[in-house]
């Protein structure tokens, strides 16, 4: 029994961590395993199932997410019931039609290997490449073309603020 609790803790924490890294399919696997190792009617079991609902949704498994969300609306713990009702309301909301140009495609980061540098994305700017440094440096500005005439705005604003503060003090507000 103690081994099951420890294995649950490991699977649950791993599932949450992989979810937060964006590897939703792996998160689903770990959270499903965690849910089999704990009493589903306990508070911790309900929390693990709530994470699983969210992971299902993120992994594109909408029907599984809704089905589990509906089960959790009958959970013995009041907080789990409230959370699942709110989450189910969001999951079952009608999808709005959005133009493609409003959408940003977010890649599944779980498929990228951390050890393969060819899969990494970046600006490509390195400190050792002098030709790129020239492109990044801002061009010099001729100060003789810059308007440096004072327009008295700060003095007008300070006089206004002083008059306002004086008026407030005069009336005792």
Automatic annotation (TrEMBL):
Key words, A-Z: Membrane, Transmembrane, Transmembrane helix
Region (Disordered): 110-131
SUPFAM superfamilies referenced in this protein's UniProt entry, alphabetically: TPR-like (SSF48452)
Gene3D superfamilies associated with the record: Tetratricopeptide repeat domain
Superkingdom assignment: Bacteria
Ranges that cross the membrane: 153-171
Designated name of the protein: Tetratricopeptide repeat domain protein
Lineage: Bacteria, Bacillati, Cyanobacteriota, Cyanophyceae, Coleofasciculales
């Amino acid at each position: 029994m103690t081994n099951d609790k420890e294995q649950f803790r490991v699977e649950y924490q791993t599932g949450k961590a992989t979810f937060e890294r964006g590897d939703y399919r792996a998160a689903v696997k770990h959270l499903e395993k965690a849910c089999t190792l704990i009493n589903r009617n306990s508070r911790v079991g309900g929390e693990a199932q709530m994470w699983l609902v969210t992971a299902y949704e993120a992994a594109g498994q909408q029907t599984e997410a809704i089905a589990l969300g509906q089960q959790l609306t009958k959970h013995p713990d009041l907080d789990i019931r409230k959370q699942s009702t709110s989450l189910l309301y969001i999951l079952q909301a009608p999808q709005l039609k959005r133009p493609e140009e409003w959408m940003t495609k977010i890649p599944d980061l779980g498929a990228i290997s951390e050890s393969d540098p060819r899969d990494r994305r970046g600006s490509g700017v390195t400190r050792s490449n002098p030709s790129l440094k020239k492109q990044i440096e801002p061009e010099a500005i001729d100060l003789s073309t810059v308007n440096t005439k004072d327009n008295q705005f700060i003095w007008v604003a300070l006089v206004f603020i002083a008059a306002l503060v004086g008026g407030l003090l005069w009336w005792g507000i």
